[in-house]
Amino acid sequence: MKIVFTGGGTAGHIFPFLAIVREIKKNYPDLNFKPYYIGPNLNEHISGLLEKEEIRIIKILTGKLRRYFSLENFLDIFKLPIGLIQSFFWLFFLGPDLVFSKSGYGSFPVAFWANIFGIPFFLHESDSVFGLASKIESKWAQEVFLSFPLIDSLDKNKGIVVGNPVRQEILEGSKKEAQKLFKLQGNKPLILILGGSQGAQKINEVILEILPAFLKDFEIIHQTGRKNFLEVKKEAEAILTDEDLKKDYHPFPFLEEEFYKQALVVADLIISRAGAGAIFEISAAGKPALLIPLAQSAQNHQLKNAYIFTEKGGGEVIEESNFSPHFFLTKLKHLFSRRDILTKMKENSKNFSRSNAAKIIASYLIEYFTQLSNKNRVS
Questions:
Q1: How does pLDDT run across 20-31, given as a tens digit for each residue?
Q2: So what's the architecture of 2-166+355-378 in CATH?
């Protein structure tokens, strides 16, 4: 069984692929399963994760349509035709049984030819709002899997709300192991700050501005993003003159899976952007969250994602325009002065989770493939 996975190439797209592939391998060990990824270039870390799962990586050129003036729009006009040609040949020669898309501009060439060739095509939309690629691809899909409740403009006969696929391995942390791994002091509430694989400049700036005051009341694990790490680390070292406070600050460029699962299990509260992947991982871990949506996200999807989650009581939103150092620190102190609020948030966060999404999607794909194979044998 050959499945081609395609998407935008970010961690938010690749991690769900990993979750689905792992579920297929775990639950269908006798299946001759050959997964492929066709899409834009990946960073070294993400490529390594796919290679570890024996997912063959095929890179294509893809063009992005930006809804604002940019010279890159003119350059990308030439990338799309090349990506379409590359995708044509790869799909033709591979002959996959199914194509599974996480949407995004990087998936469009593969989705286009899957539709032309009549290859069964499935789409998963992580966010609460459809982007342009999702709107087009949903018309070609056999089925559209959704993280959030039904989206406007979607054919209501296609949408299945399953949640966002989450790697089960990140839910297997141990507080004892976390204590050793991070050398935690353990005498203050622990805050986990997630800026995504690229970090979040605004979040980093606010944290650094209040870092000594922050550390007086909290211990921090801070994912800064790889490109920001050295700058943040250097500035933090200059700011923190108290050796005891330094012991409570644990900056990392990026939390690899082993580190991430230990950070999740030990966190008392998580500060994060509001991408669907982050929200559903936080929820699956049953953690309360303060979400700071990226103000420039396409169709403002992060803000909408965040409010759907917080309306269910799993956390609170601080919009970027209100994300000032004083307000942020005051909000944190208030929450930890009201443990009943945090306890309720934790319960609601867990209730929001749909942690079986990867298993549901994997089962659906295998069932569809089995029915298709049986039908072909009969005919």
A1: 999 999 999 999
A2: 3-Layer(aba) Sandwich (3.40)
